[in-house]
Amino acid sequence: AQSVSQHNHHVILSEAASLELGCNYSYGGTVNLFWYVQYPGQHLQLLLKYFSGDPLVKGIKGFEAEFIKSKFSFNLRKPSVQWSDTAEYFCAVNARAAGNKLTFGGGTRVLVKP
Amino acid sequence: DTGVSQDPRHKITKRGQNVTFRCDPISEHNRLYWYRQTLGQGPEFLTYFQNEAQLEKSRLLSDRFSAERPKGSFSTLEIQRTEQGDSAMYLCASNGGTVMSTDTQYFGPGTRLTVL
C-alpha cells in the first residue's frame, strides 16, 4: 500500500520569503502526484499535479513542484510567498495500479506573517 | 455553481443516532469518492463508485457505514449508531468524464459531523 509523508507540520514565515514543503511517498510503481491547498474556511483545491513528462510542474499562484523519482519526492516550492498563501497544504498520491483513490499526507499548515 | 456540493455542511448528533450525508458530484463525472478527515490529519479514503457500482471500500469503513449511488449521480453516506470517534469532516470528490481531466479529483466543501 502506498503512503505519503510530509515532513513539516507547521511552517511560519514572513511575506516575500521562499517556501519549500517536503513530500515523500512510498510506492514502487507508477504514480500520479498532487498538491492540494485548503485556504481557511474553504474546501480542498488542486494546486498542481504531475502525471508524466517534465518533472518540474507549475501550478497556480506561482507554485511549482519537482518530481524526483529516485528520491520518491514531490516537493512544493514558491520563491516569494504572500500573506494570502496562508493555508494548509496536502500532498497526495494516486498509485495507478491501485485504483483511483488518493492517499494524502498529513498536511502542512503554513502561516505567512504580513 | 458547477462544483461538487455536499449537504448538510454541518451535522450535530447524539451518540447512537443514525446520520445520512448527501453528495452531488460534477454532473458529467462518473466516479465519486468519499473521504474522512479528522483534525490535524489529511483526508483518508473510504470508498468510491464508478457510476452506480461501488468498486472499492477501505478497511476504515466499518459495518456501521454504508454508501450508495443508486442512479450513478448523487451519493449518500449513512452512519448507523454513531460513535464519538465518527466525529470528522466527510469529504466527497468526483472525477471522470469528457470535459475535465479524468484523473484530478475535485472536492466538495465537506460535511462536518460532531457526535456528542
Give a short summary of the structure.
The complex is a heterodimer of chains A (114) and B (116). With 114 residues, chain A is mostly beta strands. Chain A contains no helices and twelve strands.
How would you describe this structure to a colleague?
The complex is a heterodimer of chains A (114) and B (116). Chain A is an all-beta fold. Chain A is 0% helix and 54% strand. The radius of gyration of chain A is 14 Å and the shape is globular. By secondary structure, chain B is mostly beta strands. Helix content of chain B is 0%, strand content 48%. Chain B has strands at residues 5-7, 10-13, 19-24, 31-37, 44-50, 53-57, 65-68, 75-79, 88-95, 106-107, 111-115. In chain B, the strands form two sheets. In chain B, strands 2, 4, 5, 6, 9, 10 and 11 form a seven-stranded mixed β-sheet that branches. In chain B, a hairpin with a 2-residue loop joins strand 5 (44-50) and strand 6. Chain B is globular. The model of chain B has no long low-confidence stretch (mean pLDDT 91). Chain A binds chain B through residues 4, 6, 9, 32, 34, 36, 42-46, 49, 51, 90, 92, 94, 99-107, and chain B through 31, 33, 35, 40-45, 48, 55-56, 58, 91, 93, 95, 101, 103-110.
